Kinesin motor domain-containing protein
Amino acid sequence: IRDLLDVSKTNLAVHEDKNRVPYVKGVTERFVSSPDEVFEIMEEGKNNRHIAVTNMNEHSSRSHSVFLIHVKQENVENEKKLTGKLYLVDLAGSEKVSKTGAEGQVLDEAKNINKSLSALGNVISALADGTV
C-alpha cells in the first residue's frame, strides 16, 4: 500500500482497531473546509497514481485507489453534530493480457490487478451468501 498524498510512504500496512475495523497505519490525513479543497486533494492523489501505456489504454491505471472522506457538520443554532464517512474507490480494470500486449513489469502489474479483483469478488460473494 502506497500513500498517494505522500509518495515517500510506501509499504504501509493494514491494521484492525479494537472494533475490528481495518485502517491503514501512517496514511496522510488532510483537513479541509470546502468542496474545492477536497477536489484539489483528490486530483493530487490521482496525479500520483502509477499509469502505463497498453494496447488497450493509453493511460492505464496500474492500481486501485481509496479516498476516505470524514464529513463533520455542526448546527450552530442547536449545536447538534452529524458525522459520516464517504469512501470513494477506483478499482483498476481487469485485463486480458493477450490483448494489452503487456510485458515485464506491466505484465506483473496486470497479474496482480487481476488477482486482487478476483479476491475482491470472492469477498463480495461470501458476504452475499452470508458465509462471512
About this structure: DSSP finds three helices and six strands in the chain. The longest strand covers residues 65-74.
